[in-house]
Specification:
Blueprint lengths: L5 H11 L8 H9 L3 E4 L7 E3 L1 H9 L5 E2 L12 H8 L10 H8 L4 H13 L8 H17 L6 E6 L7 E6 L7 E7 L16 H20 L8 E6 L7 H12 L4 E7 L12 E4 L6 H14 L3 E4 L10 H6 L4 E5 L24 H19 L1
Parallel strand pairs: 6-7, 6-8, 8-11, 9-10
Antiparallel strand pairs: 1-2, 1-3, 4-5, 5-7, 9-11
Helix pairs in contact: 6-8, 8-12, 10-12
This protein binds ligand BES and zinc ion (ZN).
């Protein structure tokens, strides 16, 4: 392969989109070095090479994919059949700690969330390769370090990537060992017209999920909470560019043999369309039916809202898909059913001033996330 030139690589790129040509380690590093990205567009086809410009066109066209340039593993079986067989085995007990959980829910503060979101949206954007994207991840890290400073059983760490912005992980040790409970949100934002330098406040997508999780952790710590089994809170880099941070982390957990009880993602929790029924929408694909049923029970027990099953998003819609692809049991909460969700995302207009943005709405998602963490780790 040493004699391969860029012309041949371009031909290989073309062929791999037509035939299932196996991708060698050499091809991976050569193509990546030239700026090509390897995109997984569906569960039962080989990934295909695209230029950064072609990738952006797909995103603008609303086509979902995993960007697997840095995590591609030819030995992985990601077919739908294999994945659903793996994931359907999870079962969870009904919620049973309401006398402990409810008083903590009452301490969740929308003014804390609003103030943190003001800081996050003030960065020009939180794009995964930008300087301000990196600064935003450092601000999240610093904020979490301060919130958890009194606790020697809690560690805050940076999960670094080949790009500027890092992901942030908070690990809360359990009183005993056991499988991890994980909640996640994505810290990055994007302006689809101009990703690397365009203004992308990303208030709803996913500033809301990001500050929901910070506030859930703050409230739990203030209540003196100590889980029986370990818990992690994750803030992912690069979700908007093809689930980059969450794929790297889920793959590394799988390779380390880490057991995860359940994973839940919060991606967009701040908006419901005026005039529609206000609900907690539940993602219908790349989710485990046992986790989703458990989340439905949490909503019934702890939220004033009803849940509603969304229609399947299609493919690779948010970070839960990265965990599902590694065989973990996942669920995802969403602000509204598809079609009634916030249309201002991915541009300059994703702000809290949008008509329909509601902290009272977002608070309901923080409540469910807190209950998810508490109940599964008690
Ligand atoms: N939060 C958004 C979109 C979204 C819509 C998530 C519906 C879940 C349900 C998310 O950050 C996003 O924009 N995802 C991309 C896909 C990604 C793999 C590039 C999208 O939907 O285009
Ligand atoms: Zn998002």
């Amino acid at each position: 392969m040493m004699f391969i030139n860029s012309g041949l690589l371009a031909v290989a790129a073309l062929l791999s989109s037509v035939w299932a040509v196996p991708i060698s380690t050499q091809e991976l590093s050569d193509m990546a070095a030239q700026g090509y990205r390897l995109l997984d567009l569906s569960p039962d086809t080989e990934p295909v090479w695209k230029t950064e410009a072609e990738k952006l066109d797909l995103m603008r066209a609303g086509i979902h994919f995993f960007d697997v340039t840095e995590v591609y593993d030819p030995t992985e079986d990601n077919s739908h059949a294999t994945l659903s067989a793996l994931a359907e085995k999870a079962t969870f007990p009904s919620p049973s700690h309401s006398s402990a959980v409810t008083p903590i829910l009452n301490t969740l503060s929308t003014s804390n969330m609003n103030s943190w979101l003001s800081t996050l949206t003030a960065f020009n954007n939180r794009y995964y390769t930008s300087t301000t994207g990196k600064q935003a991840s450092q601000w999240i890290y610093d904020t979490l370090a301060s919130i958890t400073a009194s606790r020697s059983d809690i560690t805050v760490s940076k999960f670094t990537h080949s790009w500027a912005q890092f992901s942030v992980i908070v690990h809360v040790a359990g009183k005993s060992s056991g499988a991890l409970t994980v909640v996640g949100a994505h810290e990055d934002s994007i302006n689809l017209n101009s990703p690397s330098s365009g203004r992308a406040p990303g208030a709803d997508d996913d500033g809301t999920g990001t500050v929901n999780l910070i506030e859930v952790l703050r409230a739990l710590i203030a209540a003196g909470w100590q889980p029986a089994t370990p818990v992690e809170f994750h803030w992912y880099s690069g979700e908007e560019a093809g689930l980059l941070g969450s794929q790297a982390i889920a793959q590394s957990y799988k390779r380390a043999g880490t057991s995860v009880k359940a994973f839940m993602e919060l991606d967009m929790t701040g908006y419901f369309q005026p005039g529609t029924k206000e609900v907690i929408a539940l993602e219908a694909d790349y989710e485990d039916s046992g986790v989703t049923k458990f989340i439905q029970q949490l909503v019934d027990t702890y939220s004033k809202l009803d849940w509603a099953m969304d229609e399947p998003c299609g493919y690779a819609c948010s970070d839960h898909a990265s965990w599902y692809k590694q065989g973990y049991a996942t669920g995802m909460l969403y602000e509204a059913i598809t079609g009634e969700d916030n249309q201002r995302i991915h541009g300059t207009g994703d702000l809290t001033s949008v008509s329909g943005f509601s902290w009272a709405h977002s608070l309901e998602f923080a409540k469910v996330a807190l209950a998810f963490v508490y109940e599964l780790s008690a």
